[in-house]
Records
---
Amino acid sequence: MLFSYKAIDQKNASMEGTVEAASIDTAISTIQKEGYTVISIDPLDSNKSILAIEFNWFKGISNKEIVILSRQIATLFEAQVSALRIFRLLATEAENKQVQSMLNSVADDLQAGSSISRALTAHPDVFSSFYVNMVRSGEEIGALDKSFMYLADYLDRQYQLVSKAKNAMIYPAFVIGTFFAVMGLMLTLVIPRIAQILTDSGQELPIYTKFVIGLSSFMVNYIGFITFSVAVGGFFLYRFVQTDVGKRFIDELRLSIPFVGDLYQKMYLTRICDNLSTMLTSGISMVQALEVTSDVVDNLVYKEIIEYTLIEVKGGRSFADTIAEYPEIPGVLAQMAKVGEESGNLGSILTTLAVFYRREVDNAVDTLIGLIEPVMIVLLGLGVGLLLASVLMPIYNLTSAI
């Protein structure tokens, strides 16, 4: 946040300027450390200016930027650069204004005496609880360079995993969207003109032709009602999925869809194993690792499983025995976790499982793409064929009668 201030120096000479800080207290502290006495200070809400170049809705920090930032921090820590200087340096080099503002805010907090992990908690929309706990662990054992490198590797894996799954859905969504757009244009612009010719001919029309003509007539006559209904339905659907019941319904639906559900399950298992393995190998306790993992798994079904497992682990029960009760957890995961617990090597076992499930996700995505393409071709062919047959067959019969 940017603040405008008026101050006086030790010689009572007045001055004005701006300072960027996370809060007004941090801003005052920064100004005072430079040897000035603050007379007045006010926040500048520049993002609301009509002439401002930056707008809130265009701003954001991507996962890719966090990955790059984490690697840069790790490299600078390895070079024995101080934490304050690292964040100041990266802030000056950042091209994204929001990244720059965030880094300056973290640097201001560090300058005021805060730890890195505590400074990062002021930006929960950028740094997850997993990220903060990893940094806190690095602070406790004196290995911040390794912690940030672990984080960069982990975020990079998650970014690639999610990106591959999303990219796999772009082509089918584009084809299906184009199909419905073309069908809508034909039913509202082309079919009504042909339908007039067919009805005026007086011939008995096939049932599928009557259906297409009726659908076309309904869309033409009630286009406003259809548009309004879709808009209202979309609004209420959006509001529904924001509720706990709606989120639970969507999360269960994702896991129950054939083929797609298998992909989602492996994605969540990859995230769980990767989170736990990264934190356990960094010296974080199982209880704390489960608490953080439940927040970042991003599925209520698996979140509830982890929360119940956390309660059981706190009560003295083993992690492997608890997760073995759930059908959403494959037996091989529970068995290998049990071996890891017995051998005292659970972190590396979970790392192996995370690698295994990442490969499974890659295979599931490739299989899904290979399955979707022929299914789409068949369905689109049937849809277009039905539409053309409903129009061309009566026209052919009409020309044959002549």
---
Amino acid sequence: MNVFISTKGMKDFSKLTENQIAELEQKVDEAVERRALLMVNDTKASAPVDTGKLRNSIDIIPQETKPMQRTYGTNVEYAMVQEYEHRTQKGFFRNNIVKHEPLLKSDIRKALRGG
């Protein structure tokens, strides 16, 4: 189970120099990285725990990381079952995505404004 985070529209800043665009892209990338790490931490905290294998496996997937994009997830085979069928903690991935989506947008706006 993986969650993909990315941004669109950075190339719309056509009046900026390449250096200015690169600086903005770096700021947005840092904002996406910070928010992705917060999402990982919240998803881990929300995950059902028996042995801890599922919780400990949730992380950013380095081979799928690109500028302004992060994917996080788990390779535990029963993660989808827990996500959709656990008695008390189902939706631990989905709930955190819903929680963090507006926060990610806010983080990106702040980064673009220089905040």
---
Amino acid sequence: MLTDPAVPSSVLVVMAHPDDAEFSAGGTIARWTSQGAHVTYCICTNGDKGTSNPDMDPREVARVREQEQRAAAAVLGVRDIVFLGHPDGTLQPTLELRRDIVRVIRQVRPEAVICPDPTRRYGAGFINHPDHRAVGEVTLDAIYPSARDPLVFPELRDEGLEPHKVLQTYIANATDPNCVVDIAPSLETKIRALIEHRSQVTEERLRDFLPKRSAEVGQRFGLQYAEAFHRIELS
């Protein structure tokens, strides 16, 4: 088990919804930005279904959630965000979505990418959102081989976007973690970032849930608080 890997110089975080990055890897992102990493978010949906109020206008939900995402990212030291704007709840692992993500990879040219685990369908007390699974599958396919190979999506080269090889992939909430990051120094920052998602969560709930969840992960690896990943080093 690798603990506290070397901080990548540049990181692209690809997630389905506003707030996914903070829940999945907020402590790690906070630590890495504090140590000089340049982190960019790619949020695939506009989060327009993220309400229990049937009378809400989805366009207003999307507007609020984008504002919340920008505020949360800023708490973690993230300034660059790409919003792909796909409708919430309907993502599929299509070639079109893969092209969108390849485009962002070739624009950002990150050393490392963080994405969801496409194989995680359920666990104790939860069913994983299908958007999460779709984004994980498409992002891995985008990293290898599509972003790397010049003849894949030749239209992107016509846009001036040359191939790029990602060197490390961190799969968040993985079923088989092999890498852990100590987030004891950054747990409070993660909580403060998630508080910005006011339409989705309450501070009271976060301050109860997040320390418990981070401690459960950390206990498995001898740490007080942790986030775990499956790390792939690409040769």
---
Amino acid sequence: MAIKITGDALTIEDVVAVARHGEKIALDKGAVERIKTCRAMLEKKINAREIMYGVNTGIGEFSEVVLTPEQVEKFQTFLVYNHAAGIGDPCPVEQVRAAMLGRINVHAHGNSGCRPVITQTLCDMLNRGVTPMVCQKGSVGACGDLAPMSQIALVIIGEGEAYYKDERLPAQEAMKRAGIEILRFKARDGLAIINGSNLVTGMGCLMIYDTERWLKQAEIAAAMTLEALHANMRPYQGLLHELRGFKGAVTSARNIRQCIEGSDFLKGGKAKVQDAYSMRSTPQVIGAARDHLAHTRRQFEIELNGVGDNPIFVPEQDLCLTGANFQGSPISLPLDMVGAAICMVCVLSERRLNRLLNPALSVGLPAFLTKGAGMFSGLMLSQYTAGMMIVEQRILSVPGCVQSIPAAADQEDFVSMGMNTALKTEQILKNAYGILGIEFMAAAQALDFRDFKPGQGTRAAYEAIRKVVDYLDEDRPLYPDHNNIAALVTRCDILEAVEEKVGELGTSF
């Protein structure tokens, strides 16, 4: 059944379903009526020659320029032409689809003033698989994602380029093949498509979903390493974390215990009174990331279901409100910190990796997890690779939300730089798959040197790893293993194997 678009009920999971998995959508009847009512109010105001920003005035620094009635409709096309000024590689199809879904949901409130046919055309494009080609770079995340959203708007009028059935085509040809009518913009139509932070929102929704699943895998990797290092498991008792009260830490400790349950290691054996911070602080660190991610999820779902536009029309009160509801700061700030949180958890992962490889810290494991030390170097260089990616993450963790550069003759003198934040957070997450994958490789290798039966969850993880990375008996080129394990983590194969064995791991939202 198609997902109903009402304006106020989309979830991050809905975005993933539509953007990534092709779920169909349908505009709610109430939404259609609200869009019609708003358009009727707008046309009444246009006929009365009421001055409205972006309808019968220029935009930005030209907002004081009043357009003639003859210019009003043409202006919307020139507006989209002018703003389709991005650069760089195309965005992935799923990100553009997520942006389109978000924009449709904004229109569904009935406060944007476009014609209903504009919103329905966006719906048809999603349902029939026409995805505009959108350049990754160009948005400053204020006045919305103007450059990328303009490339979406171009396709509606048969210009620009689009993907259809995995083929990149001129927009007119893509729309023709999909059986979607080409439109011509009338008053307000173009600005109603482009004036919101919808691409950053769509990208963020996908990253929030993926980061939650990555954090679960970080807990699985931690569980494997803790077993391999004969950790003291008292720091993972639920009561300890409940006494402090952070929900993320409670969840993280429970997930790690769930993975280790059934291990012979839990039956006793020698353990230190206190382990190093990288071992006993894992629930607190991953838990902090979980708590921030839960906050970020709330912020993005507010944005996803809010009216991000300018101007905003309120038919019930016959009002045209101008402001800055396109401003990306409410989402760029938390998304910045998602990147920092991922980096923080990766630093913790690398420190546990170090304890697996360093014979002074590994509780009897061979140096660099190789039996042939000297002749062989084992996983020594894997740590180099993890370290390089962490340094890149640290560089990218510098906040983007404070990097405003004024634009439009200082009319737009503070911008969110939300697209910079989204792109760098995306790269931080890509690195995180490889960093965590290297810990998984080392933990599996370490468990091969132990003589106890691991927990049900950690055993399932071990078996999933061994499907793509063999035991390192003697040195071999490791780059295929690194790439294979990173892909395994990206696909969440380890998570799925563990949850099939021990049940679903907890979340913190």
